[in-house]
Amino acid sequence: MMALRLLFFFLLTSHLVLAQTQPPVTTPAPFDSMAYYNNTKKPAISEPELIEYAPTIQADGKTVIFQRNEKGKNYALYEAKMEGDKWGKPVYIDKIIPPADSLDLFGGPSLSFDGNTLFFFRSVGKDGNHEIFYSQRLKTGWADPVPIGAPINTSGYEAFPSVSADGTTLYFVRQNTEGPQDKNLRKEQSFCLSIYKSVKGNDGKWGKPERLPWPINQECEKAPRIMADGKTLIFSSNRLGGKGGFDMYQSVLNDLGEWSSPVPLSYVNTEKDDQLPCISAAGDLMYYTYNNVDIYSVVIPPSLRQFRNNIVQGFVTDRDSKQGIAADIVVTDALTSEIVMQVDNNPVDGRYTIVLPAGRSFNLEFKKDNYSSYTHALDLRGVRKYQELDVSVQLFKAVQLALNISDKEIFEPLLAEVKVKEKGQGAFIRDIKTNPKDGRVIIDLPVGKEYEIIITAPHFKSAIVEFNVKGLVIYRNFEKYIELQPEKIEVPVNVADVMNNTKVKSKVVLRNKSREEVIEVGGNTVVSLRAGDRYEMEVTSDQGYAFSSSVIDLTTGAAPPPVEVKLLKLEVDAKLALRDINFESNSDKLTDVSFRELERVVQLMNENPSLRVEVAAHTDDIGSDTYNLNLSQKRARSVMDYLLHNKISVERFVAKGYGESQAKVPNDSEGNRAINRRVELKILSI
Questions:
Q1: Which of 15, 359, 367, 480 has most Cβ atoms within 10 angstroms of its Cβ?
Q2: What is the pLDDT of residue 103?
Q3: What is the DSSP string of 90-123?
Q4: How far apart are CA 402 and CA 440, in angstroms?
Q5: DSSP string covering 226-240
Q6: Rounded to an integer, what distance in angstroms lies between the CA atom of residue 634 and that of residue 628?
Q7: Can you tell me the distance from the alpha carbon of 513 to that of 338, in angstroms, rounded to the nearest whole number?
Q8: Residue 303 DSSP class
């Protein structure tokens, strides 16, 4: 037992000795993120012997404007462009600053996020009052500066403007005449400032400025800068608890309109003055003024970055001229239709830039008076990183209206006259005709008006079409199909026996010679025919009558008398005069117009298989008797050849020429001679 006790004691003491001799296990110190980001600070725009101050950056991070003061010279504004991963050579903006003496002061530039407007302040007058000015970007550079005016500018001190991304809120500073509350600060700081903001109303005018509440304004504040999200405000302050001089603080506006307690930006603040920050919409890199001398950059810790933003930018131009145009850009929430922001673009080149937060869906509407509109849907709900989107828009002043005019009944294109006038006006602004081949015409009509279009065509009922492009116009090309109703004339067609004038049961076929239309009715009826057209009428009967053909001419548009058709009974020695059997001059060759009548002869012969006829050809008295007799014989033979070609037996007809021997009327006029030049069928047997 004693041995076991000794063994236990030995093991216990050995363990204690080992525990005391082994080094203790240490846990690494926690990662100091603020210290890490503090080490990312470096000069961004810094040249020896020069002072670079108050940078302001365009939303896309590619353009920066800042103050520069060369020894012995005035402050001036310079603009630099990003070239690769560094800033290019600054360019002096001479248009902004007119010549002034060395005592003049201007500064605090603030570039709108779309890069179209530059705000700054300058001393004005002999008393040196400070006022806020702005300048618009033109195609040739910056326009002459304009004072922003009341109620922002007063007879006192207004400076260091900063405009929100939507252009509706301006932050700036005014003198705090009460000075700092802290006694020590009061001794150090005799001139003190407070931060104000002014909101632009629906009328486009700036509202009465309001002093930002506590905890923003506490002691002496300076250089407010509103970030791209419109909620993150960074400003400088010499309040107690800072590292020294002016330090930067960040506050965020919540949905209730309350500012969060300002957080000191310890990753950038030093014992020197740190102020006048600017951050592009990407939100990861800050430029600021260090020690009132140089412009530095620093990487922003993720926990202090503004809301995730997206840039939508592009140009609004005239589709035809390709020139930039001024437009209203309205951004609405796609789910609620609530207006998120309304912004203007640059009227010179049409450029615009909009900063939108990720996680929502938006509709962007581009509109301008007397122009078309355009709506772009943008879904950012699934976006997880910063992005730049290009949405360039072309608006147009006039739409193109294509009219297609056709016949309502037979759908043929029409040659029509089209007159256009503004609704309620008397004068016509367009008077054109359609293409007769397709009935089509294209009209350019200015946007923003209502129109009446009057369409007429001879012998058709007119049509009036209203066309409204006064409201929202998205599409440029419009197509309308207009059918015109033809005017009709009621024409009685009476069919009777040529000998006893009794009505004959018959079929009437009317073929429109002006267009593709065929009408088939029974005889002894009233038929509706198109005014202005010419019809070829063919009347047949299965009651033992020959056919009859004639023309109904309505080209004048006037109603003709009733058409009286006399049918010839198929009897021996009866003579049927054939219409439109024409020959070439002094020739026995049939013209094409003759074939339609000869087809009726073929049909008559086929419908009456026992019918046997004489083809009799006659001439007028022009020429000798012998010549006319031979010519008529040849012409009768030509008609017979046509019948033979159409498989009518040669035994069923005889061809005979009579020359001028059987004139129907005296050959004393050209009209009568035309009557005598004829071909007849004489019935030989049936």
A1: 367
A2: 52
A3: -EE-TTTS----TT--EEEEEE-TTSSEEEEEEE
A4: 7
A5: E-TTSSEEEEEE--T
A6: 10
A7: 65
A8: G
615 vs 237, 425, 549, 633, CA distance in Å? 122, 68, 18, 10
- pLDDT one-digit tens code per residue, 189-200: 668 899 999 999
Say how far residue 141 (Cα) sits from the centre of its chain: 30
pLDDT of residue 587: 83
* Contact call for residues 529 and 519 (beta carbons, < 8 A): yes
- Our measurement of the distance from residue 412's CA atom to the centroid of its chain's CA atoms, rounded to an integer in Å, reads 32
All CATH 2.60.40.10 domain ranges in the chain, comma separated: 309-395, 398-484
Q: How far is CA 452 from the centre of its chain?
A: 22
Q: Which CATH number fits domain 309-395: 3.30.1330.40, 3.40.50.1820, 2.60.40.10, 2.60.120.230?
A: 2.60.40.10
Q: What is the DSSP string of 542-603?
A: TTTB--EEEEEE-TT-PPPPPEEEEEPB--TT-EEEESS--B-TTS-PBPGGGHHHHHHHHH
| Confidence (pLDDT) at 72 | 62
Place domain 570-686 in its CATH homologous superfamily.
OmpA-like domain (3.30.1330.60)
Q: Please give the structure tokens belonging to residue 417.
A: 């006259």
- Name the H helices within 392-515: none
Say yes or no: domain 398-484 is CATH 3.40.50.300: no
Q: What is the largest CA-CA distance in the chain?
A: 176
Q: Which helix (H) or strand (E) holds 79?
A: strand 75-83
Q: How far apart are CA 645 and CA 363, in angstroms?
A: 77
How many angstroms separate the CA atoms of 466 and 480, rounded? 11
Interior angle at CA 672, CA 670 and CA 675, nearest 5: 115
Under DSSP, the state recorded for 660 is T
Running DSSP on this structure, what letter comes out for residue 349? T
Q: Residues of 513-534 as b/e, b for ≥16 C-beta within 10 angstroms?
A: eeeebeeeeebbeebebbbbbe
pLDDT at 188: 63
- Assigned CATH topology for domain 487-561: Immunoglobulin-like (2.60.40)
Residue type, 233: L
| Intervals of the chain under pLDDT 70 | 1-33, 70-73, 97-104, 125-128, 181-190
pLDDT at 548: 93
Residue 418's CB is within 10 A of a number of other CB atoms, namely 22
**43: preceding bond cis by omega (within 30 degrees):** no
Which pair of structure tokens corresponds to residue 603?
């049909």
What is the DSSP code (8-state) at residue 304?
G
Strands (E), 238-395: 247-252, 263-264, 274-279, 285-290, 294-299, 309-318, 328-333, 339-344, 351-357, 361-367, 374-379, 387-390, 393-395
- Closest by alpha carbon to 297, among 52, 662, 6, 506? 52
SS3 state of residue 23: coil
Nearest CA among 597, 585, 589 for reference residue 622: 585
Instruction: Identify whether the C-beta of residue 378 lies closer than 8 Å to the C-beta of residue 428.
Output: no
Torsion, CA 509, CA 510, CA 512, CA 513, rounded to 10: 90
Contact 513, 533 (CB under 8 A): yes
Tokens of 212: 């930002």
- Cβ-in-10-Å burial (0-12, 13-18, 19+) of 230 comes to buried
| CB-based contact 649:610 (threshold 8 Å) | no
Residue 4 is classified by DSSP as H
